[in-house]
Amino acid sequence: MFEHIVIFKMNATVTPEKEQELVNSLLAFKGAIPGIVELTAGQNITEETGNIHGYSLGLRVTFENRDALRAYGPHPVHQAFVKSLDGLLESVVVVDYHI
């Protein structure tokens, strides 16, 4: 299996309500994109405020295998989400690893 972790830094104009809309979109991936074993997403509520660095959303997806991870990127549901970030995203960090 493969783990896919993404953390998002949104620009200053993004409201907490908009962030929750984005989280809801991410959570909908599980029923729509094949190969997802487990998925969690949410707004960053860490008390380690010195380590936030502006990153306000997190996503963790477990995929069945590397092929499922590779198919996720171009999947239309994922691409629609990526497009919805236009003008909202300041930075993103992605980490993928075998588990």
UniProtKB/TrEMBL annotation:
| Subunit structure, as described in the record | Homodimer.
Q: Which Pfam families match?
A: Dabb (PF07876)
Where the record annotates domain Stress-response A/B barrel, the positions are: 2-97
Protein name (Swiss-Prot/TrEMBL): Dabb family protein
Q: Which organism is it from?
A: Paenibacillus lignilyticus
